[in-house]
Design brief:
Length: about 200
């Protein structure tokens, strides 16, 4: 075999190839290519929520109605948007928070975070005690303090359901928030029956 032969196109990284193809046609109005480019250049996180809140500007509504592990409702806290690092984690989180009752009228959203956005990790900002899961007032105070800085678009936090996995808390007031691309992946989203049997 010739050692100078170019690598087979089928073996190249798909995201990289797609990105190069799109740059070559920069300025194209083709929405499908634009979506593909965003997927290659951004980090995706997921969210399962009500079908009544499918647009970016609606996603923080729930955080204004009830406190969560990393936030308090106004005026003590500020609105946030929770998302999971995977679709599977989102399902586990929703299952735990719905008290065994199958949630209705849900949709699965993919949030593509903009390239270059600042993301922080709570474990780099503070030493979480080993019993952090049982100390919601502590995690809320950490989240509130982080939110007030307005320094980063997102804060990676461990999941209380599976601490080896990450959720992300997004800051709706950060300048990069408006650049998040929201894609409705499944509407309605239906859970596997075995999760509620």
């Amino acid at each position: 075999m010739d050692g100078d032969a170019p690598p087979s196109p089928g073996r190249q990284d798909t995201c990289r190839v797609r990105h190069q193809r799109i740059r070559w046609r920069e300025g194209s109005l083709d929405a499908q290519r634009d979506r593909a480019r965003r997927r290659c250049l951004s980090l995706s996180v997921w969210r399962i929520g009500t079908t009544k809140a499918l647009r970016l500007e609606q996603l923080d509504l729930g955080s204004t109605l009830a406190p969560g592990r990393w936030h308090q409702t106004p005026p003590a806290g500020r609105p946030v948007v929770y998302a999971g690092g995977s679709r599977a984690l989102c399902q586990l989180e929703k299952r735990v928070h719905c008290n065994g009752i199958r949630p209705l009228n849900q949709a699965l959203l993919r949030l593509d975070l903009p390239d270059g956005a600042i993301l922080e990790d709570v474990r780099a900002l503070t030493d979480l005690p080993s019993n952090w899961i049982d100390r919601e007032s502590l995690t809320q105070s950490i989240g509130i303090a982080w939110r007030r800085t307005n320094h980063a678009l997102g804060l990676w936090v461990p999941s209380a359901v599976e601490p080896g996995e990450n959720n992300i808390v997004l800051n709706p007031d950060h300048p990069s928030f408006a650049s998040i691309a929201v894609t409705v992946e499944r509407n309605p989203f239906t859970f596997d029956d075995r999760m509620f049997s």
